[in-house]
């Protein structure tokens, strides 16, 4: 630590002179005064953000990169102005102005204003280490790829061998328990290295804003003589792969039992459980060999050095499997090399019944391997975007596939009996052309149609050239890509249904729908599950037909006589027990209309008589209101009839469409499934029996019946921590939205409130509920409350969703207010969409009306902690 008089002395000298002070040089670069060296830190928004430079002997760090001091000027105000240059030749400017003992302001070229810094002996959130106390796994040789070439070697005497030089490790630290930070020196050159371990056998090295993934040198270095992915030259299939710790054959992982190399001949014994396999490999040159597995005859194999498999050398006219829509499974095994994270591997399957992207996940082991089995209804579109792999492809029921992705060199290969179409889709991407969202909003429907037809033509021409250049592309590839062009366009066109106002009975133009009906609706893709876009198109097509069909009334009226009969039947069936007072009230209400008619017939129904009679009926009406509120059996009956009306209308529309019965059953199963999802409670037996009569396919039936069983189970399940559900009675007399809001949050003054305005009918709201549990865990033991306000939802559906997603707990509060009160509070809060998330500070002020959603954990964590720290 330098004494403050150093800065005073320099300041006095500068007051007497405006000349540039020449600093000592160390070789090529200027030597920086010792009084400026050290870790300088300012307060960053997030703890993991860059928060200031390390200043060394001849360099200044700038955003993790070493910049050397080419020129230093000490100016009259006591500041030091630097011209800096890094190893790549990039230049920048830097100024540091000492303001006290271990305090300064710093500025870089491009900054609007300087930042206040303090000098630290050890950077914040960093555990100091020495060059000799790094983790044991660091001290070894590290290679890149499957070449066996050593890139880094860390030795136990504090040295790094890299780029043909020996570097001294000058300092080391462990940052945020996730990253090792090193400063190394060779001659006059310095380098900052950032080491992390996404997997035990993968090290990520960041330096000069470049990331490089390396692996420990194999325990059997002889593997590098034949490592890689080998393709059968005759068939074009990827048959076998050799990696440092295992081999891959027939979509399975095999261990190395023994390796014997004699000149260019290699014999490898592989082991999988009790099974052994002998592989004989004779190298012809660096990229080819003859290879035999087990007792098979030796064949020529070539090494795949490209990102994708080359074109298959033989034709293939096999169509996609169509199993008649019987649920089967697909097994996906994989090896993710140099992977970016260890979060579970995920596959999305677009489902025509649930109308969702169903996600299936599995753990990744320490070597980057996984096995995932997931259900499919037929040959099926799937999406793999784990680690931004962005693979849209198609799989067939009952098949196994092996996926290999190397995130360092972007290689993607698939092994398997039916893997050809997957490899072809990876190797040959279609033309990417589309109408942007903002562009489309400005277009009329006919202009949009014309532009879409142009895109279809451009994509088809591009595809025709591709097929001409690659004549052996398979029948599956040809069929898939043709249908992909058609239904990508069809999906976009039918989204235009939302451009017309159905409340004003507006329709899409006849010419528009004529094109859809003639060019796109006929000849559907088969199987129907092969393309996600076909399901999206069909959903919107049926939705549009439903929109323009004559409206049917969803109003149900029940006479007082019918109400009495229903309640007496409910009691006979053992569904409810009525008191004598309730029976009398129902009977009096049943006679209500008859008495009114008698008074009208006798001309005695004047206003005074009617008022007196209404007054007389008040006790009975209150008893009936209490009865209806006490048990939802009557509301369930009414809702069941409304649902039946709605379903019958949709089924009638489906039956009117020209399509085969299999497709109709898929759409009908979707109709019933969606009804379950909308109500979040079991359907009445009458509707379930109707469903079984309408849909005979057992696999389609299982969707609805399984979900029905789930909601039946949830309905009978007790709510955990029922104290989270707040009663409405204390708020019953409040009608003003702001007063309601203030009353609700009053008990939580001194806490940060995370508000979620949602509804049981809202799909995106429910999608976010799956993240609520992990979001709440972020704030356990903190002064944070999760407040849920539910919009226009029945009591049973409200409670069912709370139970389904486990939304209760010590820091969770739920309200399901009557509609009028909920509307008033939403008007005050300016709620315009669902879900809406807001943050309320400790004083009860709304400070963020667009708070991060629960799935954005880091953003939510930072936003809440800022409020907690105030």
SSE layout and pairings?
Layout: H1 5-15, E1 25-26, E2 29-30, E3 38-41, E4 54-55, E5 59-62, E6 65-74, E7 80-85, E8 91-100, E9 103-108, E10 115-120, E11 126-129, E12 141-143, E13 150-155, E14 159-162, E15 165-175, E16 179-186, E17 189-199, E18 202-207, E19 210-216, E20 228-232, E21 238-242, E22 247-249, E23 252-262, E24 265-272, E25 275-285, E26 288-293, E27 299-303, E28 328-337, E29 345-351, E30 356-362, E31 369-376, E32 380-384, E33 391-395, E34 400-406, E35 411-415, H2 420-427, H3 437-441, H4 445-469, H5 475-494, H6 510-520, H7 532-548, H8 560-572, H9 580-590, H10 592-601, H11 607-630, H12 633-656, H13 661-679, H14 685-694, H15 698-715, H16 737-745, E36 752-758, H17 763-769, H18 772-777, E37 784-790, H19 795-805, E38 812-815, H20 819-829, E39 836-840, E40 846-848, H21 857-868
Parallel strand pairs: 28-34, 36-37, 37-38
Antiparallel strand pairs: 1-2, 3-4, 3-10, 5-6, 6-7, 7-8, 8-9, 9-10, 11-15, 12-13, 12-19, 13-14, 14-15, 15-16, 16-17, 17-18, 18-19, 20-21, 20-27, 21-22, 22-23, 23-24, 24-25, 25-26, 26-27, 28-31, 29-30, 32-33, 34-35, 36-39, 39-40
Keywords: Cytochrome c-type biogenesis, Disulfide bond, Redox-active center, Signal
Organism: Bacteroides thetaiotaomicron
Main location: other
């Amino acid at each position: 630590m330098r004494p403050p008089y150093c800065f005073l002395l320099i300041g006095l000298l500068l007051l007497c002179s405006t000349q540039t002070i020449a600093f000592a040089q160390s070789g090529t670069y200027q030597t920086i005064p010792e009084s400026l060296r050290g870790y300088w830190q300012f307060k960053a928004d997030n703890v993991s953000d860059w928060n200031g430079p390390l200043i060394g002997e001849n360099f200044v760090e700038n955003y993790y990169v070493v910049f050397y001091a080419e020129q230093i000027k000490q100016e009259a105000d006591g500041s030091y102005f630097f011209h800096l240059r890094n190893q790549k030749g990039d230049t920048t400017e830097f100024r540091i102005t000492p303001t006290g003992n271990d305090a300064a302001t710093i500025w870089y070229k491009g900054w609007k204003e300087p930042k206040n810094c303090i000098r630290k002996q050890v950077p914040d959130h960093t555990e100091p280490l020495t060059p000799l106390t790094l983790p044991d796994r660091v001290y070894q040789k590290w290679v890149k790829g499957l070449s066996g070439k050593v890139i880094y070697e860390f030795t136990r005497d504090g040295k790094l061998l890299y780029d043909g030089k020996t570097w001294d490790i000058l300092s080391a630290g462990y940052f945020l328990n996730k990253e090792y930070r090193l400063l190394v020196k060779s001659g006059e050159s310095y380098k900052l290295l950032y080491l992390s371990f996404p997997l035990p056998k993968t090290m990520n090295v960041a330096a000069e804003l470049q990331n490089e993934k390396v692996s420990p040198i194999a325990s059997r270095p002889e593997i590098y003589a034949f490592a890689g992915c080998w393709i059968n030259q005759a068939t074009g299939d990827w048959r076998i792969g050799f990696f440092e710790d295992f081999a891959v054959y027939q979509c399975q992982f095999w261990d190395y039992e023994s390796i014997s190399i004699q000149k260019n001949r290699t014999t490898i014994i592989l082991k999988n459980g009790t099974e052994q396999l002998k592989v004989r490999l004779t190298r012809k040159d660096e990229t080819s060999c003859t290879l035999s597995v087990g007792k098979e005859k030796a064949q020529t194999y070539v090494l795949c050095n490209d990102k994708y498999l080359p074109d298959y050398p033989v034709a293939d006219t096999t169509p996609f499997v169509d199993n008649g829509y019987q649920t089967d499974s697909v097994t996906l095994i994989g090896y993710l090399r140099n992977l970016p994270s260890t979060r579970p591997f995920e596959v999305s399957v677009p489902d025509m019944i649930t109308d969702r992207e169903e996600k299936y996940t599995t753990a990744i082991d320490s070597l980057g391997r996984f096995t995932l089995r997931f259900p499919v209804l037929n040959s099926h579109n799937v999406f793999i975007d784990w680690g931004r792999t962005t693979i849209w492809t198609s799989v067939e029921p009952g098949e196994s596939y092996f996926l290999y992705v190397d995130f360092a060199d972007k290689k993607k290969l698939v092994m398997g009996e039916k893997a050809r179409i997957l490899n072809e889709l990876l190797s040959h991407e279609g033309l990417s052309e589309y109408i942007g969202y903002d562009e489309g909003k400005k277009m009329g429907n006919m202009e949009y149609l014309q532009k879409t037809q142009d895109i279809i033509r451009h994509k088809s021409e591009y595809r025709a050239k591709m097929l001409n250049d690659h004549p052996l592309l398979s029948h599956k590839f040809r069929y898939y890509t043709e249908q992909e062009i058609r239904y990508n366009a069809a999906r976009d066109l039918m989204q235009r249904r939302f451009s017309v106002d159905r409340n004003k009975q507006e329709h899409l133009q006849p010419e528009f729908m004529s094109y859809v009906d003639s060019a796109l609706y006929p000849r559907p893709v088969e199987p129907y599950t092969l393309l996600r876009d076909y399901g999206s198109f069909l959903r919107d097509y049926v939705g549009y037909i439903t929109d323009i069909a004559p409206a049917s009334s969803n109003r149900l009226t029940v006479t007082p006589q019918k109400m009495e009969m229903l309640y007496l039947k409910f009691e006979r069936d053992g569904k409810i027990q009525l008191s004598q007072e309730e029976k009398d009230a129902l009977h009096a209400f049943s006679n209500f209309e008859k008495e009114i008619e008698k008074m009208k017939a006798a001309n005695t129904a004047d206003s005074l008589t009617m008022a007196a009679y209404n007054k007389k009926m008040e006790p009975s009406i209150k008893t009936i209101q209490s009865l209806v509120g006490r048990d939802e059996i009557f509301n369930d009956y009414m809702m069941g009839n409304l649902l039946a009306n709605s379903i019958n209308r949709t089924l009638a529309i489906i039956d009117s469409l020209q399509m085969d019965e299999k497709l109709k059953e898929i759409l009908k199963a979707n109709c019933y499934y969606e009804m379950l999802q909308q109500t979040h409670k079991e359907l009445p037996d009458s509707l379930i029996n109707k469903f079984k009569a309408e849909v005979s396919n057992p696999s389609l039936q299982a969707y609805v019946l399984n979900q029905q069983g789930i909601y039946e189970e949830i309905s009978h399940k007790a709510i955990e921590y029922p104290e989270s559900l707040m009663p409405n009675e204390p708020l019953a007399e409040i009608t003003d939205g702001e007063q309601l809001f203030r009353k609700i949050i009053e008990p939580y003054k001194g806490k940060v409130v995370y508000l979620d305005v949602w509804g049981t009918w809202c799909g995106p709201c429910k999608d976010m509920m799956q993240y609520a549990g992990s979001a709440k865990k972020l704030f356990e033991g903190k002064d944070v409350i999760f407040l849920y306000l539910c919009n226009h939802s029945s009591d049973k559906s409200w409670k069912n969703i709370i139970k389904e997603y486990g939304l209760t707990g010590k820091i969770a509060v739920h309200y399901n207010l009557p509609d009028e009160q909920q509307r008033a509070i939403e008007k005050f809060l300016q709620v315009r969409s669902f879900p809406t998330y807001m943050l309320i500070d400790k004083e009860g002020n709304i400070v963020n009306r667009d708070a991060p959603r629960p799935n954005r954990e880091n953003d939510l964590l930072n936003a809440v902690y800022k409020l907690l720290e105030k």
